User: Fold this.
Amino acid sequence: MGMSLDRALAIKSILASYLKDVYSSAIHFKMPHEKLLERKQLFVLNDPLYRKAPRWVHAYLNGMEDIMRDNIYRYHLVWLMSVDGKLLTRKEMDELYKQEKAIADKHKPNDDYKSPWARVNSELSNHYWKDDNGNPLRDKPF
Assistant:
């Protein structure tokens, strides 16, 4: 016979609380993604209650995590692109493009010119945490 519904609901509540704590602390301390995953493994997936929980509890926690992860990407992170060794937001890229285009328009066209968008180093571009005012924290990659 399987686990009682009351017991399964109690386990779901406990594990959901652990998962919320993992994500809340990741946001508060601006943790890298790897650290968030380590803490999820340690505090949720390795918990004996997780192994005992029915599949529908696992599915619930997966859905809950999807929502919390989407929340992080939507409200707490910004994508910064590496251009000429500097990390720039999309808005900063647009401003740089306008400045360079204005200079190029005043002079004769240079065939060697590449726009900032063409100079993005995708290997160094990454998501970064935002501060409380929405400004990127360039020293806090996710």
